[in-house]
Amino acid sequence: VAFVVCRSLEGLKTFTYLEELILDNNLLGNDLLLPRLPHLHTLTLNKNQISFQRNTCKILLDHLAEVAPSLQYLSLLGNMACPNELVCKEKDEDDYQRYRYFVLHKLPNLKFLDTRKVTRREREEALVRGAFMKVVKPK
Fold first, then answer.
1. Among 121, 92, 88, which Cα is nearest to 104's?
2. Where in the chain are the domains?
3. Which of 44, 88, 97, 104 would bridge with 126, disulfide CB 3.0–4.6 Å?
């Protein structure tokens, strides 16, 4: 387990066998770039600056799928990308569920997202409609 408090993740490339990485409270954004971590199964990015601006979250999720193929647990709580009603009063459970479908569409091997286990029904729904579930606000 690595506990990192930083803005640069350059040094992680030497930890190719890393399995768990906690990057909570680091001001990390959608431009987060991780080295290839083939054994990484747990990643927490809680309380950072990850959002659903334009296509950037999609790019981040694609990046995670590529560099962390073993990822099973991901937590994005406390980020604008995670529409949690505890963080943002305008969000509700439907917004959060759409977010889950979108993330599961991009990362189908996840077993847990945030604090909840991924259900069979969610996985099926993500396969069918996940690509269309990105939560965006009109300008």
1. 121
2. 19-132
3. 104
